[in-house]
Amino acid sequence: MARGPPRSLFGLEKRRAGVIFTAVIPPCMKERQKCLSLLRARFPDEEFSDAGLELVHCGRHANARVFRWRGGGRDWIIKDFSSCAWLARALVGRWATRREFRALTRLKNLRGVAGNATRLGPCTVAYDFIPARQRPAQQ
User: Is residue 2 part of a domain?
Assistant: First the structure.
């Protein structure tokens, strides 16, 4: 069975003389702009640029797209279900966002729980980024 060249995520992979070239396309461009517009609507006095926003996890099916935004003295994680299919967004997205927001606001005084949780939209929640600590190597 003859197979053609492997396909990339965007279908832009080419094979020349046994070497595969893949075009690099910024992922989730529409979702990035929507995320920035939600941030600007929620915090109109602050500046939000595209340079400070990076994609952490590109969710598929009923999973959220997770962005990290750094700038203006803030470092946030933004979970956005708006790119999911309408059924997943309406059922899973709204429920998961509401549940996570409630849990973060109730547990905000505990050590290790992200603070400053805010809902940017019905399917989007933002909260402080907590950097991971390196565990000491065991011998």
Answer: no
